[in-house]
Design goal:
The complex is a heterodimer of chains A (about 290) and B (about 180).
Chain A lengths: L2 H13 L3 E5 L2 H10 L3 E4 L4 H7 L8 H8 L6 E6 L3 H9 L4 E5 L20 E5 L2 H9 L4 E4 L9 H19 L5 H8 L3 H10 L5 E3 L7 H9 L5 E3 L1 H4 L4 H13 L4 H7 L25
Parallel strand pairs in A: 1-2, 1-8, 2-3, 3-4, 4-5, 5-6, 6-7
Helix pairs in contact in A: 2-12, 7-9, 8-9, 10-12
Chain B lengths: L1 E5 L5 H10 L3 E5 L11 E4 L4 H10 L3 H9 L3 E5 L1 H6 E4 L17 E6 L10 E7 L2 E8 L4 E5 L5 E6 L2 E7 L2 E4 L7
Parallel strand pairs in B: 1-2, 1-3, 3-4, 4-12, 5-6
Antiparallel strand pairs in B: 6-9, 7-8, 10-11, 11-12
Classes of the chains: A alpha/beta (about 290), B alpha/beta (about 180).
């Protein structure tokens, strides 16, 4: 593995136990940082609005991203379309701290992801199961997140993906060494990465939860299921009191095992985002890019 | 030896593994009650200093930990941990956002956050640490020690002529990550 890949995995390690928040303006970025976000995701429209607006959704305006970079000292991430090498190059040129090659935007390539080993800047990618996670890592992703169903405020997919990934990891650990070749074939994943999971019982990179996290309890649930931190998209700035909700989710991720504290954190947060039941939507973003 | 690792955010699992590998009895500090277990050394891991600083306050950990550090408890701090300890946070070129003057403010150095730039400025090198050669040093969006504010502060390693790790009384602090090896 190259030196850059290692450094990029290391940055994700520094984000663990933290909350990465979607923001659309420098003011929101400052609110997120002050509330304890460990990084922000700069984007023109949060997923709920992308879903509502429909049409083709693309990388954000670099000027808008730079405005957010100038507003905070924490790492700034931004999204490019799946397979859009040029958008990723542009984000690298403005020295973004992490690129999210994201199914929330309209895919630019319906079969291939970006060869992320060709970049110096790190990438996070979504995955619904172990095979998908290992394929992305094989392409050079240095951080993984569940895909959830962005913009819905419904945590059900994130739970499904995280549970599936963790149970597949446990299965790989339980195999005999000579069964790993067949497992790699079934998972459609690189053999060396399957061997890593067998030996270590975890992904070789940091694994966050994303999609539908809207409350401190949602965040605590994802930590319970094995997430190493959470992304919160529409859940904060689509809610009644973003600063208070953001700070409560940050504390919930740190002390997800303390139910008494979670009860206190969940009090008087104002209305959560209304949300859409994930069964009632037409555009299924998690299906994008396998 | 009993080591308490601050586990509010960041690479605390790596810090725990580092101390376990040295035979220490390790526990996590996530809230005030955890401090009552007592410790021989406090380890402050890497992560985001703004997040850790805020959580220390929100969780009521700030004052009791500071009291122990001032009282002479051994402290081992990396990256964000160093920023939390520094007497002065001096980043004139820094961008806006959260710009605290200090957190614990006990270690007589001035630190500059994100001194090597964004993630593209992160790097790995090998150098001399405390007289030992060939020690791997990983800098992730690292701070720099811009100024040493007391002659009692001893530099343990340097990069481009500037100290990258220091020892002062009961505190050992790094701008890089010995726990990442």
């Amino acid at each position: 593995m190259s030196n850059r890949q290692e450094l990029n995995r290391n940055l994700a390690q520094m984000l663990k136990g933290g909350v990465i928040m979607d923001v659309t303006t420098p003011e929101q970025a400052k609110i997120a940082e002050a509330a304890g976000a460990c990084a922000v995701m700069a984007l023109e429209r949060i997923p709920a609005d992308i879903r509502a607006a429909g049409g083709v959704s693309r990388m954000s305006d670099p000027a808008m991203i730079k405005g957010i970079q100038n507003a905070v000292s924490i790492p700034v991430m931004a999204k490019c379309r799946i397979g859009h090498i040029a958008e990723a190059r542009i984000l690298e040129a403005i020295e973004i701290d992490y690129i999210d090659e994201s199914e929330v935007l309209s895919p630019a390539d319906d079969t291939r992801h970006i060869d992320k080993t060709k970049f110096d800047v790190p990438f996070v990618c979504g995955a619904r199961d172990l095979g998908e996670a290992l394929r992305r890592i094989g392409e050079g992703a240095t951080m993984i997140r569940t895909k959830g169903e962005p913009g819905t405020g419904d945590v059900v997919q994130a739970v499904r993906h995280m549970r599936k990934m963790q149970s597949e990891i446990r299965r790989v650990v339980s195999l005999r060494e000579d069964e790993l070749y067949e497992a790699a074939k079934e998972l459609a994943a690189p053999l060396d990465l399957v061997k890593y999971v067998h030996a270590n019982g975890k992904l070789p990179v940091v694994n966050f939860a994303a999609g539908g996290v809207a409350t401190p309890a949602d965040a605590a649930l994802m930590m319970e299921l094995g997430a190493e931190g959470v992304f919160v998209g529409s859940g904060i700035f689509k809610s009644g009191d973003p600063a208070k909700r953001a700070a409560a989710i940050v504390q919930a991720v740190t002390n997800w095992q303390d139910s008494k504290l979670l009860a206190k954190l969940s009090e008087n947060l104002g209305p959560a985002m209304v949300g859409i039941n994930a069964d009632e939507i037409e555009t299924i973003m998690e299906e994008r890019g396998k | 030896m009993k080591v308490g690792v601050l586990a509010v955010q960041g690479a605390f699992a790596e810090m725990e593994a580092y101390w376990r590998a040295q035979g220490a009895d390790v526990f996590e500090i996530r809230q005030r009650a955890d401090l009552e277990r007592g410790m021989d050394l406090l380890a402050l891991p890497g992560g985001e200093s703004t997040v850790q600083g805020k959580l220390l306050n929100d969780l009521g950990l700030f004052a009791p930990i500071k009291e122990r550090i001032v009282g002479g408890l051994q402290v081992f701090a990396t990256c964000a941990g160093l920023i939390l300890l520094a007497e002065k946070i001096d980043d004139p070129g820094a961008r806006g956002g959260t710009r605290p003057e200090r957190w614990f403010g006990v270690l007589p150095v001035a630190v500059r956050r994100n001194a090597y730039g964004r993630q593209l400025g992160s790097f790995h090198t090998v150098g001399v640490f405390d007289g030992r050669p060939d020690v791997p040093m990983t800098f992730i969006r690292a701070p720099a020690i811009a100024e040493v504010l007391s002659p009692e502060v001893k530099a343990l390693s340097t990069f481009n002529g500037r100290p990258t790790s220091v020892r002062w009384r009961n505190i050992t602090a790094f701008t890089w990550h010995p726990e990442l090896g």
